[in-house]
Structures are given as structure tokens and as C-alpha cells.
């Protein structure tokens, strides 16, 4: 009897092999045949890892050279018009990355994870045609290795729900064009084997769907189940509960429902319905999104609760979602604290956890062999160690956070801004940047050499000071009014702070795919957070000493630090965030005592952390706003607090932004014209705003005239007294030659607009 199941597996490779070969191919130092060779090796290795761990349901078609949503678009021939002259790998990568003549497809976050997908573009002018070769080839590749896989595909309702229409219409109107392609695909799959399982990923069911979308579920799955009698369909959701969809799916002929019982424990409410239908439950009980070792005892308890309603023989033990969202393996972590390492579990280790849990659940402890017994004892010891460790729990931190009584700044915003304008003396349309300047190879090398003890502290600091001196001199020369130090000492806007906070951990090889070949290495929060000493004061103070201009202090906000980390699972996220906020309030106090008059607290990932369900959004907003306000609560009235948000849709959270009570907010608007800014006007937003006047995600340098027009568009929406002028994001990823010219053009554009306004 099949007992366990993996929703999906990482594809980047345990040493980022896919990343390296893709980037070599794009750099024209490797051919596409080399990409195909590495991909084939990785797929084979990943299937074998899962088989050897004792996994019963292993996926094919969860592998991708870039993104599964992109693969689905290519499979259906949903090719935007601008790419239709291309074919093969040239077409595929142009859609993902753009080319000399065409901009890439839009990329956005996969629900509330840090993975990005390519947004399908649908047009009523398109005619779609199935190409199932990738699915067929991968299934047969695995079969040659003696591994029978389930086939993973993105479900039709999720595919349409995450697509956009070229004419801005409703993508669900294409249901009648897309569903026949799925039926055709199922006919092809039905010929591959006597019996075959298709996993249909429908994570959109974890969101609140309107009646129109819910009404598509039954006809969709009735039709797909009718295609071929030898196909078993498993509809899998994750990241939240999907009770509304489940109520409908139990009345279709699908074989199984995959549910996330960790991030959507409300799924327990649907078990009775599923039990009556006789369908299988793929029980997501081992965390596919986080890096903590599961508690076998706790996981077994959850499974026993499920089995009180659903027969044991109808349960499959599974990961809560694809393991794509976790690093590959712990085996390369040879520098990590050994006690902390025992608490962690990456993708390969989770395979063993799922295998062990399913063995215990179905066969009992007496069925374990010697290796499995050792694994169980190790799990019990590790969880006990983590529960009691002084590395995790600090009474001093807990008491301090509990006794923290200042939850917001003194004074109302209108009073503060008047005082700040008087003291700081900046003009209308004040010019500044978001914070970071280009990270040159030299500065990266200096940081790396210092970290690896190849250069002394004095040599390292000399390099950092040299960069800051040059950065300050350029800003003065080009005419910027509020300066930044450029952040040369920072490797990453979260990792830099995490390295200086107690309770934070770091990996050597904890890489997770963000998109395409782009991988990130999130830090992890394992214990109570505190700040042993000032983190930024030394470098900001040095930068201020090099100029008479105002120098902004630069911090990452508590919510962004939280959302871009793997977070401990033994404490509510809001309580972890509060600990970070209290630590940051100390940093802000130290900065202002050192004479820093403007402090920017970036909340780039504020919107990314939003839950998928409305009832949970209010809870998130409550503690997220609270913690931003706690972080800045130490700022005096005359200290101006800025924040920056990297998100282009604020309509639904504009009131929340207002509640955060920052004096100045800078936002990305370069790609949306002044549409976004209109929201600020509509709600009567009274604080100051820095809408980005040019897009830093492109190497293109806008002309002075273009920026003048952009500023004039902004002035149609908000008065000059309320506007700051800046790029739309940090300049870390750009080259100096692009940055220098763009900022000179921006400053000149402001000069021209000011003259026109004064005339």
C-alpha cells in the first residue's frame, strides 16, 4: 500500500548546478546541449534521492529550466505576440528574461512565498495548441530508471486566475478555450501507462474565491475525470485552507485531495465531507516552507486526529507543499553550530522525516529497523534540546519585550513635519536616493576577504571608508540634497542586520530558488532576538562627518527582516517581529543621539507577508503596524522617519500605510505612471511621499526631459510641498556609469521644474 507523498522537489541542484549552467548558457560560454545534460542529471538524481528515501509518490514535471507557469504557457502555445517570431529555447528564455527587442513577461510572487512566477499573458487574438512533449519526455525519463512518477501540472483554475489579459479583461473568460487543452493533455497522458496519477496544483483554492470562480470547479473536474479511466486525479492545495473548494470537489470523481494542515489547519473542518466521499486525503503534515525538523510525536498526533475521521487506508503522509521553498540538504553545513544544525531539516532531510512518520503511523514503532530507530531517537533528542536550549530562550529579552510600553512616537504627524521642515531646511521636491549604491567587485571582494580573514580589520575599514568618501563626494557634486552612505558594508538588507542580532543563524549552502537562476540564502531566526551593540551607527556617523549635507541613517524594518527570513515555528510570527522591533528602537535612539536627523526604516517586504485570507489579514496588519511603530517609537519629533516599500499595488493597504505614521514614504511608481499616486490623493494622505521617478530595474538611463515630464505628472496629483524626488528603489544592482548619469539627470530635472514653478 502506498503510504507517503511529496508534493514537489527543489530543482536548482544541491550545489546550484542548474543556476551555473543556465548562466553559462546565457553568457554564451556553454551550449544548450550542456543545459539539457545537466537538467537530465539533476532530474535523475532527484528522483533517485526520493526513491531511496522510501517515497511512494514522486513527481515528474515539477522540474523546470525557469518556472512551471512559464512551462504551462509554452505547453499551451500561450505566447505573447512580441515573441511569436521565436522558437525553442530562444523563445522560452526570451519570454522569461526579455531580449533586445522585447520586454520580458511580468514576474510576481507565488502567493505569499518568496518564489516568483512568470505571469501568463492571454489575448483573444491567440489560438492555442497543445505541445505535451516536456511532460511525456520527463515521465519516460523516470520510467527508464525504474521510477514510476505522478505527473504534476498547474491546474486550469489557478492558471487562469494568475494570468492577465492583454485587453485587461477577465482571464476566466478563457476557460472555454483552455479547458479543452487540458482534456487533450489528459488523453496524451492516459496513453503513457496502465494506471497513472496526475497531481493538479490548485493553490488558488486557498484564497477567497467569488461565486463565479467557484462555479467553474465542478464542471472542470467532472470533465477532466471523464477523459481517461486509467488516470487518478489528485487536486492539491497549500499555504492555507481550501474549505470552499473542498465542498465542491468532494462531489466530483477526483481520486484524492491534497491539503495543507500546517498553514491551513481549518482544513480539519472538511475531513468529514471527504470521509463520506471515500476520497484519499494527501495530508500535508511535514512543513515544506520552513527549515525546522518536525516533531515526530506532534506530527503523529496530527495524523491520528485526521484518522479519527478519515480511514487510515485513505491517508497519504505528505509535505505541506512543494519542497521547492526549502534549501536542498544540510550535508554541506560544516561551519554551523552543531546544536542548532540538529534542529534543522532541509529538503533531503524532510524526505527521511516523511518516510519515518509514515512508517510509524501505519506500522507502529515495532516495525522500525535499527537505522529508523536511531532516526526517531535523534528526532526526540533534537526537539527536546531546542525546547530547553539557552540559545533559543532568553528570559531577559522576553521580559524586556513584555515590559516595553512605548508603542508610538510623540506628537502628531502635522506637528512633526512642520518642526522637521524648520530644523532640516530642505526644499520642496527635495532630492535623495533610496539608500544603496552600486556594489562594485572591489567592495564585494573586500567584504569577502575580511570575512575569510584574508585582510585585517584596518584594511577592510580603509576600503569601506574609501567607498563612502567617493559616494558622498559624488552625491555632493551632482547636487543631491539628502545623502546616503551607499551601504558598502552590507551584503544584504536582512543578512547584514541578522549577523548582528542575537537569535539569528546563517547557512553556507541554504540556497532557495527565487526565480530562474536567481537564488537567495535566507537567514533563520532560531531564538529570542536582541541587539548586543549598535549595528549601523559607526558607518552612518562616519559618512555624516564627511559632509555638511543631511545624511540619512538606513535600517531594514522589523516586518521585512521577518518576512525575508526562515522564522522559528515555536512562537507566533507577530511576537518574533515585536522582538526585532524593540531591538531596532534601540538602534534608532543611538542614531539620533549620534546626530543623525533622518532615519529610513525600509519595509520592502511589508505587503509580501500578507495572509491569503481576509480574516487573517487584519491580524497581520495589526501586529505589523504595531511593530513598525514600536521600532520608530524612540525617534524624537524632530527626527524624520522615512520608509520605503517595493510594491506597486497599494489600493487595498493605503489606510494601513497611513497608520504606520512614517513622515515620508518612498514607493515604486516608475512603471505605473501616476496611477498609484492617485490613491494617496484619494484618501487625503497628508504625509510626504517620494514616488520613484525612474525604474532602477533596467540599465536604461532616462533623459532629463523624461524626468521633467514624470515630475510634472506627479505634480498633477500632489502638491510640491508633499513630494520628494528619488529613484524607485535602491541602486545596489546597477553600474556606476548608469547611476551617475541617471542621478545627474534627475537633479537637473528638479532644477528645471523648480524654476518653472518659481517663474
Based on CA atoms alone, the radius of gyration comes out at 27 Å
Poorly predicted spans: none
Shape, principal axes of CA atoms: globular
**Overall number of domains:** 2
* Number of helical stretches of at least 4 residues: 27
Average the pLDDT over all residues and give the rounded result. 94
What is the level-2 CATH architecture name of the largest domain? Alpha-Beta Barrel
Portion in beta strands: 5-15%
- Report the end-to-end length measured between terminal Cα atoms: 83 Å
Alpha-beta content class: alpha/beta
Helix content: 40-55%
CATH topology of the largest domain: TIM Barrel
Strand runs, count:
24
* Spatial order of the strands forming the largest sheet: 1-12-11-10-9-8-6-2
CATH top level of the largest domain is Alpha Beta
Taking the sheet with the most strands, its summary is: 8 strands, parallel
Amino acid at each position: 500500500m502506498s503510504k507517503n507523498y511529496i508534493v514537489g522537489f527543489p530543482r536548482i541542484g544541491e550545489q546550484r548546478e542548474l543556476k551555473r549552467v543556465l548562466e553559462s548558457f546565457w553568457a554564451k560560454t556553454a551550449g544548450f546541449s550542456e543545459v539539457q545534460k545537466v537538467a537530465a542529471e539533476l532530474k535523475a538524481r532527484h528522483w533517485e534521492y526520493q526513491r531511496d528515501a522510501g517515497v511512494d509518490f514522486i513527481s515528474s514535471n515539477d522540474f523546470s529550466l525557469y518556472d512551471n507557469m512559464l512551462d504551462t504557457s509554452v505547453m499551451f502555445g500561450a505566447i505573447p505576440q512580441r515573441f511569436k517570431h521565436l522558437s525553442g529555447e530562444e523563445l522560452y528564455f526570451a519570454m522569461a528574461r526579455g531580449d533586445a527587442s522585447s520586454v520580458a513577461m511580468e514576474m510576481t510572487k507565488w502567493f505569499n512565498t518568496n518564489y516568483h512566477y512568470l505571469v501568463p499573458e492571454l489575448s483573444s487574438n491567440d489560438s492555442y495548441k497543445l505541445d505535451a512533449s516536456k511532460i511525456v519526455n520527463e515521465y519516460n525519463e523516470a520510467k527508464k530508471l525504474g521510477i514510476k512518477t505522478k505527473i504534476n501540472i498547474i491546474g486550469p483554475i489557478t492558471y487562469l486566475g494568475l494570468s492577465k489579459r492583454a485587453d485587461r479583461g477577465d482571464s476566466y473568460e478563457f476557460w472555454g478555450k483552455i479547458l479543452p487543452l487540458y482534456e487533450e493533455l489528459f488523453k496524451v497522458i492516459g496513453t503513457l501507462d496502465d494506471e497513472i496519477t496526475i497531481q493538479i496544483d490548485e493553490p488558488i483554492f486557498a484564497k477567497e474565491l467569488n461565486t463565479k470562480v467557484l462555479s467553474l470547479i465542478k464542471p472542470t473536474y467532472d470533465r477532466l475525470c471523464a477523459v481517461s479511466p486509467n488516470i487518478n486525479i489528485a487536486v492539491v492545495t497549500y499555504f492555507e485552507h481550501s474549505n470552499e473548494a473542498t465542498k465542491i470537489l468532494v462531489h466530483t470523481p477526483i481520486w484524492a485531495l491534497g491539503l495543507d494542515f500546517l498553514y491551513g489547519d481549518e482544513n480539519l473542518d472538511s475531513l468529514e465531507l471527504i470521509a463520506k466521499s471515500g476520497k484519499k486525503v494527501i495530508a500535508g503534515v511535514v512543513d515544506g516552507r520552513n527549515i525546522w525538523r518536525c516533531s515526530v510525536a506532534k506530527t503523529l498526533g496530527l495524523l491520528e486526529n485526521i484518522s479519527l475521521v478519515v480511514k487510515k487506508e485513505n491517508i497519504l503522509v505528505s509535505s505541506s507543499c512543494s519542497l521547492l521553498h526549502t534549501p536542498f540538504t544540510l550535508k554541506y553545513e560544516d561551519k554551523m553550530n552543531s546544536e542548532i544544525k540538529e534542529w534543522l531539516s532541509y529538503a533531503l532531510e524532510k524526505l527521511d522525516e516523511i518516510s519515518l512518520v509514515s512508517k510509524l503511523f501505519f506500522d507502529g514503532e515495532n516495525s522500525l529497523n535499527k537505522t529508523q530507530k536511531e532516526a526517531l531517537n535523534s528526532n526526540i533528542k533534537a526537539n527536546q534540546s531546542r525546547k530547553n536550549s539557552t540559545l533559543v530562550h532568553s528570559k531577559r529579552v522576553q521580559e524586556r519585550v513584555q515590559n516595553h510600553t512605548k508603542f508610538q512616537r510623540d506628537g502628531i504627524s502635522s506637528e512633526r513635519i512642520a518642526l522637521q521642515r524648520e530644523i532640516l531646511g530642505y526644499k520642496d521636491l527635495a532630492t535623495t536616493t533610496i539608500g544603496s549604491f552600486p556594489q562594485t567587485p572591489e567592495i564585494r571582494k573586500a567584504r569577502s576577504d575580511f570575512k575569510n580573514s584574508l585582510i585585517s580589520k584596518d584594511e577592510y575599514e580603509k576600503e569601506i571608508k574609501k567607498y563612502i568618501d567617493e559616494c558622498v563626494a559624488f552625491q555632493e557634486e551632482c547636487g543631491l540634497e539628502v545623502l546616503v552612505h551607499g551601504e558598502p558594508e552590507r551584503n544584504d538588507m536582512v543578512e547584514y542586520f541578522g549577523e548582528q542580532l542575537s537569535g539569528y543563524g546563517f547557512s553556507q549552502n541554504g540556497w532557495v530558488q527565487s526565480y530562474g537562476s536567481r537564488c537567495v540564502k535566507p537567514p533563520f531566526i532560531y531564538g529570542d532576538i536582541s541587539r548586543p551593540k549598535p549595528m549601523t551607527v559607526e558607518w552612518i556617523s562616519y559618512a555624516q562627518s564627511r559632509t555638511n549635507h543631511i545624511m540619512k541613517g538606513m535600517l531594514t524594518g522589523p516586518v521585512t527582516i521577518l518576512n525575508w527570513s526562515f522564522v522559528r515555528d515555536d512562537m507566533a510570527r507577530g511576537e518574533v517581529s515585536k522582538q526585532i522591533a524593540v531591538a531596532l528602537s534601540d538602534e534608532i535612539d543611538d542614531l539620533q543621539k549620534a546626530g543623525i536627523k533622518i532615519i529610513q526604516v525600509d519595509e520592502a517586504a511589508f505587503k509580501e507577508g500578507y495572509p491569503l485570507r481576509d480574516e487573517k489579514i487584519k491580524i497581520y496588519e495589526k501586529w505589523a503596524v504595531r511593530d513598525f511603530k514600536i521600532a520608530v517609537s524612540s525617534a524624537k519629533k524632530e527626527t524624520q522617519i522615512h520608509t520605503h516599500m517595493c510594491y506597486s499595488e497599494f489600493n487595498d493597504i493605503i489606510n494601513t500605510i497611513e497608520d504606520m505614521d512614517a513622515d515620508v514614504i518612498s514607493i515604486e511608481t516608475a512603471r505605473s505612471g501616476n496611477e498609484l499616486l492617485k490613491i494617496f490623493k484619494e484618501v487625503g494622505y497628508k504625509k510626504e511621499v517620494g514616488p520613484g521617478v525612474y525604474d532602477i530595474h533596467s540599465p536604461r538611463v532616462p533623459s532629463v526631459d523624461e524626468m521633467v515630464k514624470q515630475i510634472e505628472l506627479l505634480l498633477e496629483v500632489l502638491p510640491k510641498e508633499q513630494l520628494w524626488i528619488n529613484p524607485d528603489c535602491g541602486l545596489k544592482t546597477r553600474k556606476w556609469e548608469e547611476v551617475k548619469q541617471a542621478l545627474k539627470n534627475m537633479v537637473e530635472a528638479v532644477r528645471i521644474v523648480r524654476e518653472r514653478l518659481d517663474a
